[in-house]
Amino acid sequence: MSISIGLNDEFTCKEDYYWCRNYYASFTYPNHSSDPYRLLSFFYFTNLDSRPASFIMSVTQDSIAQCLFNSLSPDSATRKNAEKTLTSMEDTRQMAIPLLQLINNSQVDENIRISASLYFKNYIKRSWEQTDNTEDIISPEDRAAIKQDIITLMISQPKSMQLQIGEAVSIIADNDFPSMWPNLIKDLVSHLSPTDISTNNGILQTAHMVFNRYRSEFRSDMLFTEIKYVLGGFAEAYYQVFIATTLLVPKASDQKSLLELLDSVKYLLIIFYDLNCQDLPEFFEDRMEEFMKIMHSFLLYNNLNQISNIQSLSLPDDEDTAGILEEIKAEILRIVHLYTSRYEEEFKQLPIFLETIWNMLTALGMESKYDGVVIQGIRFLTTMVKNPRFKQTFLSNGMIEIICQKIILRNIELSVSDEELFEDDPIMYVKRELEGYEADSRRNASSELVRGMLEQFGAETTQAMLQFIMAKLDEYSKNPILNWKSKDTAQFMVSSISTMASVKSLGVTQTNNLVDLNDFFQSQILTHLTNINSDSDSPILKSNSIKYIYIFRNQLSDSNIESSIPLLVEHISHNSPAVSTFATLTIERIFVLKRNNSLLFNEAKVIPFVQPIFDKVFSQLISKPTPEKLAENDFYAKLIMRIIVCTKSKIPEIAQPIFTQLCAILETVCKNPSNPVFNHYLFESIGSLSKFTCSSNPSALQLIESKLFPIFQLILESEISDFMPYVFQILSQLLLIHKNDSNFKKLAPAYVALLQPLLQPNLWDYQGNIPALVKLLSSYFSTSGVELAENGQLSPILGIFQKLNGYKSNDHYAFELLDSIVLHVPLSLLKQYLKPIFMLILNRLQSKKTPKYVKLVTKFVGFFSAIDSTAISTAISSNNYSSMNGEYVTTLISTLNEIQPQLLAGLLSGILVSSIDNTIRNFAEIKYVTVGYMCLINNPTFFEFSDSKVLFSSILANIIKLVEDSTSKVSKQTDESINNNVSDGFGSQNLMPNASSLDDEQDLYQSSFSKLSTLDGLIIDPCPLIKDLRVFMGSVIKAQVSTGNSNFTESVSLLQPTEKSFVDLYFRSA
């Protein structure tokens, strides 16, 4: 077929290269070196639309329904096969409409339709967005059809399906509305009715899903333009429905109708907030009095009997669950809070709301069902307190003390639900406590109110709260067993009045100077920790005391912190999971605590606690009865990882028993992986322990592999998808350890046997595997590239490159793999494959060119050419300038000339040169792109191109710009691709990050692929001898001048004066 790549000419690519008579030919034939084009037939077809007809899958309602039914099968093989088939259906670009038709088919079992609606939502979430990095698997025609029919389809479905379809609408709207879906608001409004409440509720729910993002969007002209557009088509209809619905509420004839109407009121209020959260629209300002009168009326109702005259209301009085009236009140208070904080001047109804809300807060009971209302009410009061305009109001009539007593003290006390959570779900209790002010609870809302009062009335608030704290401590001292909740309240109040500012990962960063935290620690906290068996009737006091250390670790003295560590270690064994967990996470945070940019606990200080901590943590873990319970507490796994990375020089001495325990835990959780965060830290621990142990004792590698390989084999055979990426990463690390062994000669049989299964197509179907598999194959090439090529493994692996290269989401992995191949496979073994490789690249440039892909190709040309730098540097250093003709650049030019004469020149001038300057992320890329293109333009073959001198000057100008503009960007950054203490080429040094500095701020765990941060990255450097870019460029320039190369001189003369000055600078630096 004929392929245009943006040049004046076209080149021809034989379509036959893309197909193979045997789909799994690479597994059938051990050696493919006789037919380099067979690499192009491996795995999947690059372009699904051009596959032979026999490969096109039929996608119908029946086939989708059968797959959805099978996906619910208890048999894992049936489920996995169904999931794979559904994925294949998506790839056909023919799935969207049959899937919607299935959802709308009333003849199909409702459970299948519900599954179809859920699948449709997730399908839209995965596939609707169109970017340079995603494949477009929904055709334009299907997109238009979906947007045309989806609203009508949604409102005709049962409520169980409306929510899923509504979420799909919101996803589509996030991408397409309003520019590519101008009819959305019209479609929504057309279905609103003053009387059809059921339909209204579906439309209002969906409208909220569309408008909800306004709450978190940054203010911008584009956002305000969109909101104005929405108001123009939606506001009037919304207003009419709001008024009509609220008028119908007291007229409801039965309980079902009443509840449906109140649901509608709730959605209307939620949308009110959506449309008002960024700015006060004129439409709502003009009708504020009417809206607020209605809202205020709902705040006055104490129960549904006051709203309606229905005699047969029989609503359960549930103390724990908020009813519809409480939900409505909470939404109204949210709106009042918004108007008070943002639109106070226009909000004339504020005084009446203030009085009503104050009365509510002082009258509502402590039942959990009122929590939402109370929390919103306290947040409103916090806004009032922080407003300087009301400062004198709150300073008068003893209001500070009244607020403390009637609002804060009342709602800061430990609730029954808190106690139950502590006992029944201790891990959730701890996580909620760690969320602090982010968690929705009465306690946290009250604590936020305290902080607001401290901003305006610091001394007055502190004095009032300290009086209550002393009173509570006095109550506790009189009867510690009976009055332990008084101590709990006092502990919480001290934390509240002491904290002025905090960061989740760092703890408290600013405190109240009027509170002596170290004194309170000595007098009221330490007493609960000196004996592990104390407070047996009130373990929450222990939990609070440990939390105090966690929160104020930056403020407590070094001596207090250091003396608390042995006590915390003991409490890892506490029989309360919450206490044990708080002790564990506090130790982990203290071990990364810094004073004056140095760790408070260096390796020497941590060492004495290593064995006791491991003993206690492992004891806790192995005591769990099921794999799910074992993996429940990820804080244990994180502490294990932290100890290993903090004691990396000493940990090898006790590595064997630790490794045995970790493998036993891994074997257990393999039975049912349940907590991805626990699993991540478990693999971090295994990986880092392997690395540190083998770095000091290479002979330990055999023992590590003997323990890991059986479990890894189980994971791969059982296709435990959550674990497979971790396995591949650790195998990659182990391979590199082998490579660094002075006795290494060739791959061990275990790794040879593993390679073939790694090439199985099903492994590459799971996106999460791809980054780790590419790293692993790169490690194979780094370790034994020649061996792989000589054994005929190059063809199937290059087939993987073809598969990855065909997808926008994976093309960067394709080039990552290709970089390893061209660097570690000798050119003599690689040459026969280069033409089909470049034909694949050119075909992709022509068919699916994206800015990202252009950058990838630009970098690859530089990478490939930079391999010549070693030979060129050697020739220059020996003054043997005639040997400067690099074979990689020569081969690159000749290969592309075989495809089309002058092809590389056309690619450079038409596509690549302009992207040299903006392709770079880090110094490693700056280095090889600069070096590579210098090698390219200074190869004698380069001057055989027509207009080569103009092209030369253009490339050199872009290289100069890249080097000079990038100096400031990389001179201070840490670059993980460069070894420790290696010059960054600009006169500074880049150091590898210390593994012990890993912190919560790093996204260690991600849902699709989780990189093990404690493992070393594979260094792929095509120009390892180059330490300083300017010196290298200067040495090449000096060599060209010394040989009297007129082509070079004439090319340089075309540069701008500023660029020539840099050439002179480089010349002098060589």
UniProtKB/TrEMBL annotation:
Top-rank taxon, per record: Eukaryota
Biological processes per GO annotation: protein export from nucleus; protein import into nucleus
Domain (Importin N-terminal): residue spans on this chain: 82-156
Main location per the UniProt record: cytoplasm
Swiss-Prot/TrEMBL keywords: Cytoplasm, Nucleus, Protein transport, Transport
UniProt cross-references to InterPro entries, sorted A to Z: ARM-like, ARM-type_fold, Importin-beta_N, XPO2_C, XPO2_central
GO CC annotation: cytosol; nuclear envelope
Subcellular location(s) per record: Cytoplasm; Nucleus
Family membership noted in the UniProt record: Belongs to the XPO2/CSE1 family.
Name of the protein in its database record: Exportin-2
Organism, as annotated: Smittium culicis
